[in-house]
């Protein structure tokens, strides 16, 4: 059943998953790098570009708050099961 | 006043730097560092005559509290408190305006009884309505009370509350009720709303579809499914499981028709010329675009993506209606207890 707590946990896990995709070690090896010069300007609106942009911005914005949220959730789950 | 007579020539330097000290400040002056007294420097300089007359030793708390009872000190404290409260309120309002556009919200709740009744009838039976265009009033949409096609948030919020209460009622009929169930149903429905809105927003962003549909509009249109859920639950009350499924089928068809007709005008209004009035969708919309070349790829922010998004919305709404209500309907007596949710 989808409750608010489940939704919160699911979003936390998804954000964590997005943030652990390392830029140098992983993304550039696959070709999802965000700084390649091979993208022409006509590629700017493709879905791949949008998704990679989204991943990069999520990573930048939520890196610090995610640390705090993770610590709080871990303590909460330890104490209350 | 229980204090001894003031000595007007003496002014303690601790909180009145404007006066020259007449001697080394006695050590007991530390007890005067009360917040209310600091206002004396900022907006009540005329009172220094009174404040300056408090040099006498007042070490006991009783004397300090009696000083706090003085009307002047209380006025100062009240004024300071009011100032803090006003600043706090201003700061809160500024922050709130950044997140929740309150003036936009007011537009969505500007409804009256006639609008609500006609809109509910429209959701249940949209097949005879002819004119689906939202009227505009100098580039801003007209308030819902003047135009039946405008989206509003009143019906969705009332529908949400009614759904929660009706869910509690139906659980009670099956002896599955406890007071926590109301909270569980309410937060579950709220989580589904949030999840659905996130899904739509992420879909719109990733496919780079540009529409004139605002977030609150999308929230309003997705909230109309609560009427479908309530009507199918009532049908299930009256006629059991078959009644529930019949009601669900009919009202989801009606809701899909209503959403498609309404959203088609909103989503596709930015694109080219007059639409064909046919209900069948996969007409090649970019054939009419004078700037397109013989390219297979849909134009960015293009009409085809909007059409797909519209279909996506129209299909997920009935699915969500079913998903949120099927566990509430009483199963026929031969099947045993329903699934615990």
Helix tally of chain A equals 3
Helix content range of the residues of chain A, please? over 70%
Main sheet makeup of chain B: 2 strands, antiparallel
Shape of chain A: elongated
Oligomer: heterodimer
Major sheet of chain A: none
Q: Termini of chain B, distance in Å?
A: 69 Å
Précis, in short:
The complex is a heterodimer of chains A (81) and B (341). Chain A has 81 residues and is mainly α.
Explain what this protein looks like in three dimensions:
The complex is a heterodimer of chains A (81) and B (341). Chain A is mainly α and 81 residues long. Chain A folds into 2 domains: 1-30; 45-80. In chain A, 72% of the residues lie in helices and 0% in strands. Chain A has 3 helices and no strands. In chain A, helix 1 (4-19) crosses helix 3 (47-80). Chain A is elongated, with a radius of gyration of 16 Å. Chain A starts with a helix and ends with a helix. With 341 residues, chain B is mostly helical. Among the domains of chain B are: 73-102; 149-271 and 299-326, no CATH class. Chain B is 55% helix and 1% strand. Chain B is built from 11 helices and 2 strands, in the order H-H-H-H-H-H-E-E-H-H-H-H-H. Chain B has helices at 39-43, 48-51, 61-68, 71-99, 102-108, 113-124, 154-173, 179-206, 215-223, 225-267, 303-325, and strands at 136-137, 140-141. Chain B is extended.
Structural features:
heterodimer, A: 81 residues, mainly alpha, 2 domains, 3 helices, B: 341 residues, two-stranded antiparallel ribbon, disordered C terminus, Immediate early response 3-interacting protein 1 (chain A), transport (chain A), membrane (chain A), protein transport (chain A), transmembrane (chain A)
Ordered list of secondary-structure elements with their pairings:
The complex is a heterodimer of chains A (81) and B (341).
Chain A: H1 4-19, H2 23-30, H3 47-80
Helix pairs in contact in A: 1-3
Chain B: H1 39-43, H2 48-51, H3 61-68, H4 71-99, H5 102-108, H6 113-124, E1 136-137, E2 140-141, H7 154-173, H8 179-206, H9 215-223, H10 225-267, H11 303-325
Antiparallel strand pairs in B: 1-2
Helix pairs in contact in B: 6-10, 7-8, 7-9, 7-10, 8-9, 10-11
Main location (chain A): membrane
Signal peptide (chain A): 1-22
Keywords (chain A): Membrane, Protein transport, Signal, Transmembrane, Transmembrane helix, Transport
């Amino acid at each position: 059943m989808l409750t608010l707590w489940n939704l919160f946990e699911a979003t936390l896990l998804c954000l964590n998953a997005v943030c652990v995709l390392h830029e140098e070690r992983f993304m550039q090896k696959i070709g999802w790098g965000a700084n390649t010069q091979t993208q022409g300007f006509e590629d700017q609106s493709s879905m791949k570009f949008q998704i990679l942009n989204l991943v990069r911005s999520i990573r930048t914005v939520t890196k610090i708050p995610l640390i705090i949220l993770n610590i709080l959730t871990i303590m909460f789950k330890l104490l209350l099961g | 006043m229980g204090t001894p007579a003031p000595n007007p020539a003496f002014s303690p330097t601790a909180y009145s730097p404007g006066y020259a000290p007449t001697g080394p400040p006695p050590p007991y002056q530390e007890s005067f560092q009360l917040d209310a007294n600091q206002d004396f420097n900022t907006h009540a300089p005329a009172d220094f005559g009174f404040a300056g007359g408090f040099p006498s030793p007042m070490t006991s708390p009783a004397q300090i509290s009696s000083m706090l009872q003085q009307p002047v000190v209380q006025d100062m404290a009240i004024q300071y408190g009011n100032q803090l409260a006003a600043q706090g309120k201003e700061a809160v309002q500024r922050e709130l305006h950044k997140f929740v556009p309150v003036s936009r919200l007011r537009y969505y709740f500007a409804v009256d009884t006639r609008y609500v009744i006609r809109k509910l009838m429209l959701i249940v039976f949209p097949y005879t309505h002819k004119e689906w265009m939202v009227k505009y009033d100098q580039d801003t949409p007209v308030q819902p009370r003047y135009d039946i096609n405008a989206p509003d948030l009143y019906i969705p919020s009332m529908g949400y509350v009614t759904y929660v209460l009706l869910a509690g009622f139906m659980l009670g009929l099956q002896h599955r009720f406890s007071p926590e169930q109301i909270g569980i149903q309410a937060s579950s429905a709220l989580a589904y709303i949030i999840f659905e809105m996130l899904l739509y927003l992420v879909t719109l962003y990733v496919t780079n579809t540009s529409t004139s549909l605002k977030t609150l509009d999308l929230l309003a249109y997705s909230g109309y499914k609560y009427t479908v859920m309530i009507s199918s639950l009532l049908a299930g009350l009256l006629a059991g499981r078959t009644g529930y499924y019949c009601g669900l089928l009919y009202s989801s068809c009606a809701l899909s028709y209503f959403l498609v007709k309404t959203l088609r005008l909103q989503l596709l209004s930015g694109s080219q010329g007059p639409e064909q009035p046919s209900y069948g969708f996969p007409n090649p919309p970019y054939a009419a675009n004078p700037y397109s070349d013989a390219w297979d790829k849909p134009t960015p922010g293009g009409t085809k993506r909007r059409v797909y998004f519209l279909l996506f919305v129209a299909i997920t709404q009935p699915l969500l209606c079913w998903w949120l209500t099927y566990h509430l309907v009483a199963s026929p007596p031969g099947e045993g207890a329903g699934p615990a949710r």
